[in-house]
Structure formats: structure tokens, C-alpha cells
Specification:
The complex is a heterotrimer of chains A (372), B (97) and C (469). Chain A contains 10 helices and 23 strands. With 372 residues, chain A is an alpha+beta fold. In chain A, strands 5, 6, 7, 14, 15, 16, 17, 18, 19, 20 and 21 form an 11-stranded mixed beta sheet that branches. A 6-stranded mixed beta sheet of chain A has the order 9-3-2-13-23-22, with helices on both faces. Chain A has a 4-stranded mixed beta sheet with strand order 1-12-11-10, with no helix packed on it. Chain B has a single domain, classed as Ubiquitin-like (UB roll), CATH 3.10.20. Classes of the chains: A alpha+beta (372), B mainly beta (97), C alpha/beta (469). Chains A and C meet through helix 7, helix 9 and strand 20 of A and helix 16, strand 23, helix 19 and helix 20 of C.
Amino acid sequence: MARTADVIVIGGGLHGCSTALHLALRGLKTIVVEKDYAGRHASGVNAGGVRQLARDIAEIPLSISSMAIWEHIEELVGDDCGFASHGTVLVAESEVEFAGFRARVDDLRLKGFTHEELIGEAELRRLVPAVSDYCPGGIVSRRDGAADPFRTTQAFRKRAIEKGAQVLEGVAVTAIARAGGGWRVETSDGPIEAPRVVNAAGAWADRIAAMLGEPVPLEVIAPMLMVTSRLPAFIEPVVILRGRKLSFKQLDNGTVVIGGGHRARPLRDQNRTVLDWGKLAVSARTVWELFPVMRAATIVRAWAGIEARMPDEIPVVGPSVTSEGVYHQFGFSAHGFQLGPGAGAMMAELIATGATNVPIDGLGIGRFAARP
Amino acid sequence: MFKRLGETGSAITIEIDGKAVRAQSGDTVAAAMLAAGIEHCRTTPVSGASRAPYCLMGVCFECLVTIDGVGSRQGCLVPVRDGMRIETQQGKREAGR
Amino acid sequence: MTRAPDLASSYDLVVVGGGPAGLAAAALAARAGVSTVLFDENPGIGGQIYRGITSTPIKDRAVLGEDYWAGTALAAEATASGATIVNGATVWSLDPSRQVGVAIAGQVRMIQAQRVIVATGSLERPFPIPGWTLPGVMTAGAAQTVLKAQGLVPGGRTLLAGCGPLLWLLAAQLLRAGAAIEAILETTPRGNWLRALPHLPDFLLSPYWSKGLALLREVKGKVPVIPIERLAARGEDRLQEVDYVSHGKEHRRRADLLLLHQGVVPNVNLANAAGAVHRWNERQLCFEPVLDVDFTSTVSGIAVAGDGAGIAGGTAAAERGRLAAIAAVRALKPAVSVPDPQSVRQRLQREELGRGFLDTLYRPADAFRLPEGETIACRCEEVTSGQIRGMAAIGCEGPNQMKAFLRCGMGPCQGRLCGLTVTELIAAERRTRPGEVGYYRLRPPVKPITLAELASLPISEAERKAVER
């Protein structure tokens, strides 16, 4: 006897749990199937950046709608998720870069987006006093901030369960097939049937997509992070760079998280990654140049999450092209954390009403369909 | 807390929080501090509680001190040198030291 | 002194740890012609058991005892073997491809190894009692370290507390050195004697039996030994008193130094971070690596020898080091002749003979492994036992999830002093077994490195390009 639901969500990361919560809030019976535990992978171990800044234009509407949810996250999930907002600053390291930033901000304004603001030397020094002298300015997104990724994912999971969703952990999906007018998802713990399925399987989503006859060119990546021991507070905004890989933030507890996307070697079927110290050394030198006060900071841990990257660096969000009733929500290419709350709300709206108010054109899976 | 059984090496002088302290070659920084009767070597970054060396074999990380300007060094693993400057650590490490 | 730039970029064999296992392994491999480097983070070789073996100021051999001085031969063998021995060298990373990250005097290098033997030994089991973080509370091993290496002895009112052979050995060494010990507060659960009886015949056949008896006699004649069920350290800013319960009655003693010891457990951090699978040992109440007969872990080419493979003592450690080295030599230079492993295995078996009795007799009581309330479990992040139990009770299933909520295990010691406590507390609260709960998932650097040290790593052009957008 198969379990039944209104919606099956494959993957218990932030996107899966957020979608499950929002579906449950709309009264839809939802079952999440997670092969490890919620937040085990990219969702739980990323840099925690809650960032609208520097996104591809196709993601911006989703990002803005998600930001509104972040600002009331405690009401939604009963936990502030460690969210603190001191802005994100994209620092220019040269005049050439700065000119490029000016062009970007102008272009965004033309398109009606005002969340990115060009800043010169004076404002840069005011926002980030510790940054090196050679930086001429940057772009700031003032509403941005950072949160605790594992805590956030767990909060969404917990609230989803409280609102009636089921979250099965340690259960893997083995097959999907049509059954009657809906879908039958085979798992390591028995079959589940539902008219709707959401593929939120992160770095394993290509396998789910392949089962549905919609192969996608998903690349499994393992972005690396380092964290230091506690330092006295010296920086408030999150700092990112364009020309070199860096993301840099100091948490309330004083530790500094250094990321930027340099990659480890993922072993996706072993849930493991092998770190690349050569690249981390380059990252250390980047921090050295940008923030001289960090030179004696101690690195206490380095790690990498297992994440999905699409070739155009934007996610796959929207209905399946081959399979009626199936929806995709994966491929966030190392910048999906901030989108989680909003993408879940949008997906639930789409599933429940057949349409969504948040523009997601450009993100559909159809863009990978083979040309005849 | 601890006393020396005798002269074990050549006498050297180190500085702890600005004060000259006699030590022996062959001491580690932590051992020299214990022999000099120094009660604690740091306060924690979480609550400011006083801590002193616990394991003396490099696994507990309680013996963290600043040595010649470089902070959060495990005193039990560093041999003393004549003229070495040691500072006890208060709370969160100073960035840039 | 070997500095980082003096190192080759690759060696046939990298040995991590200069205690008996590491020294024996390096000596055997180097003599067989395998290019061998041994890294140890201390100023001299010997590990814990033979600490200061080449430099100790304690010249009277009777103080430390002949078991200690047996280390001289081992140290000499390693030094003469042709192995490159580097002190002050901290290995902070090891990955499945056998790339070893090492830091020497502020500089970092990545060394490629064909084979690695992790010989990082053991550390003392956490002993979480109220007030154990106060200055003036230390481990028995700490007192032994400064005795051997610097000739320091406790100066004031000193109490020893706990159980296990090391406690008696330390007491004897301190007394011989002229130090005064007020009392030994013994925590060996009374029921353990009965449980240990089935192992007695093997114990009587082992060398531990007569040595142990002699030590006990030597110490009990000079120091009161008090059986206790509860223990706490009290004081404002440093230890001032020790409270204990003996035969149901409460006592309080003034004290300047409290030395704690309830056995040693494998130091799993490097092997765990390298991806080696570990399993729970219910008899010894600790995690140990899963190994084959040659001490190879579940990561090909990486072996774990010595107490890190499972607690068996110093002499057994040397034999295990030899077996791991023999396997490495056979893999790297099959034509070279090596000592017959059979005779090494026989010697090892004899050494392991008495362990069952000792492990069972000195298995620490629940009360001293499963703290409650305000007693700190994670010293680095000051997380209490009550907080951990509370999280476990509301559904937090494992230490890796617990880490994210309470920060336990996220401090510089990387769980060395809290890992077992946290795992056992979660198991107790959730009525399951420590093997089911698991341990922290450790990552390099297993010892902190500074940003400056990491930035000192020589980088290839390819790596530099890989990090640019």
C-alpha cells in the first residue's frame, strides 16, 4: 500500500523544506523525501550569505521577493535563523573594475531595480574601514546580510512538520513513474504516490531529471570555505569581490568565514569532498591583500559542501517540460541560500494556483532541451 | 603550583606580560609559566573565564598565549628562547597580532 | 633543524608522530631503503610515554623507571636509521590522496606520500567534573610531561583522582622524585573487580601483573587511597578546594593542584579527517579506526599504528609500528628483505594479553563520563552538559547537528576534549548506542594554522589561475 500525498518533494535541503512549509501553509499534504538529513549538504554548510547583490537579472525578482520573507523570518519559522543585516559590499579592486560596476548599476536602474548602489572611496571606507587602501569603491546592497545555514534549514524543516508536512530522512528515491493521473515515487522505504512532485534534489537533481526524460547538464561542485577562531569585531557588512574569488564575513561570535567558490573535489556518492589547499592558499593571499588585519588570524576549520552548478550559473526553477505535475527547483550554482524562502513560497503558489506572481522566465528547464 | 627539582639547563630570561621571568633552556613556554607560579595564561573569548594549561601535550588548547607578537600559540609546544616576549591572552584574539 | 624549504616535495613514507609506534616504523622503513620522513610537533622525539627521552633532566633512572628508559634504544634506532626526523613540525592535513600538509616555524608545505603511517597516539579521556576548567586542575599526563621534560614537580597540596595504570605510575614517579601527594581519590567502580575476574588468567600471564602489583604496593604504602563516587573542583578563578563523596559521605579538602586521569583514548583527529572509518569500541568506550591486519585503514595507503589504533600501551605500539612499516616496505620495495612479521605479531600478542583485565577493571564509571547540569562538556566553547542533554532530548540526533546549534566541537581543540562526552550524552538521552550516534565529522586543518602560514604555501600558476573568475 503506497503512502499518498498531494505533493512529494524530493530533497530536504532549504529549498525542499521551504517549499514543503509553504505547501503545508496552503493546506496541501506534503511528504519530503531526503536521503541523508535536512541540511546535510549545500544548504547546511554554505557561507550563509543572504544576498541580493551581484545576481543574474533572471534571478533578481525571486531574490527581492525572498528578501521580504527574510526580514520577517522569525514570524514564518519561529527562529530568527541568526539573520543579521549589515549589507553586502562588492569591492572594486581597480578603476577598470569600478567602471564596470558603474555600468552594471546604471543598467539595473534602467530595468527598474534599485537595490544595488554605487559607492565611492569615502563611503567604502565608512562601511568597511578595514579594507585596503587600493580599493576605489564598490557596490552596496544595504538590505543584505547573513544567516546560519544549518539553523535556517532545520527551522524550515521543523515548522513544515508542525504545519502537517512529513519529512522522511535517510530515505532515497530510486525511481519515478506515472501512476494513474499522477506520480509514483519509489523509495528505499516504500512507494509514495502524489499528483505533484518537486525535484529539489540539489547535486543529485540531474538523476531525478533523467528519470523523467529531461536530462540536464548539471555539474557537481564542492565550493570550499574556511573559518577562523574568534576575533574582535572589525567588519560589519559581508564583502565580495568580482575579479577574484572571495566572500568574507565576520559573524556575531567573532569568527570570520572565508569563501568565494574555489572548488574542492566532490565525491557525490560518498557524501565526501577532498579539499584543495593550493587554492585555499591563494584565497589566504587574497584575504591578506584585502584585509591586512587578518594576517595572523587562525584557520580552525575548512570544508566544502556538495552543490549543483548549471552551465549558465542560474538555477532551474519551474514546471517540467516532459512531465505534467512535476516541478524543478535545483541548480542554484552556489548562490541559492538567500533564494530559499522565496523560491519555496513561489513554488507553492505555482503548484496550488497554477501561476505565480514572481517572474521566473529564463529559469525554466526548457533552456537545456536538445535542439532538433 | 610546580617547583623545579634543580638546575636543569642554562638560565635564560623571558618576558611575561612585561615582567622579566627566569626560565631554563629546555622549558616550553607553558612549563616556564607554571614554574614561575603564573596562575592563568588566558581568559576565554566566550565568557572571560580564567584558564590555565590542562594537558600540556597539545590537545586541549588551554595554554594559548601570544609569543613575540603572534597570538593563539600553544605554549606547551614552543621551546623558550632568551628574550622571548610572552603575553597572556584576554578574550578574543586581537586581529592583526 | 629541518625547515620547511629543506623538505623534499615527496617521500615514500611519511610517519606522523614520534612516539614508540612512529619511531619503530620510521626506523624499520628507513633501514629498508624507503625514503622516510617523520614529523612530530614537539621539540623532541619520544611522544608521551618517552617524552624527553633524549634530553630529560631526571638523571636518576630509578625515578622514571626502567620502562621509560627502554625508550632510549628506540630513539637511537630511529635517529641512526637514515629517516629524516623533523621536530616542531605540525601535520595539519592528510587527505585520501596521501597529500600531507605540514607547518614548521611559520611556513607550510604540502608533501606527497606514497604511504602514510599515522602514529599520533592517544590522549587522556575527558574527565568532566564540576570545575574541571579551573586553573589548578590538570591531567595526570600533564604532570608527567613536565616531570620528564623539565624536571618540575607539584609544589603545593596535590591530589590525584581517577583510575587506571597511569595514575599509579605517575604517583610512584612523583613520590620517587620527592614530591608530596596528599591522597589518591580512586574512581574505579567496585563492581569492575568482579567483571574483570574472567580476564585474570591472561593478566597473570602478562608482564603487567607483576609490574602493576609492585607499583600499587609502592604507592599505597605512602599515600592514602580513598575510593570515591563523586568529585568536584571548587574555587573562585582557580582551584581552592576539592569536594568528593566517599562511601556516601561528603568531604572537602583544600587543594592547590588536582590531577585527573581516567585512562587514555585514541587520538582520532588526523585519521578521521583523512576519511578513515572509525567504529565504537564498547569495552574501551572510545572510537578507534577500522583496520586490517597490517593496520591499514579504510583509506588505501594510510595506516594507523600505536595507541591510535586502539589502546594497548607503549611496547605494543612499537610492534604495531613495525608491522605497519613492514607492510609499507613490501608495497613500495617488494624485493627488499624485511623482518618476519610473524615474530613481531607474536610479541604483539604477548603485549596485548593483559589488556582485557585492565580495560574491564578500569572502565570509568558513568558518573564521570556522563556529566549533568552546569558541568562544562565543551571547554573551548563553554557548552554545558545540560545544554547538550537538552538538545538531544528535543530531537538533535548526532554531534554534527549538535555542533551547528551549540557550537560544541567548533573550538580550536576540534572535539579532542568533548567529542566522547558529547557522543555519550546524546546516546544516553536518546536511549541509543554511541556507535549509532557517531562522532564529529572532522576536517582539516586538524591543528589551526594562521592565514599567514597558509599564504606561505608555494602555489603553482595553475592553482593561481583556478581561483580567478
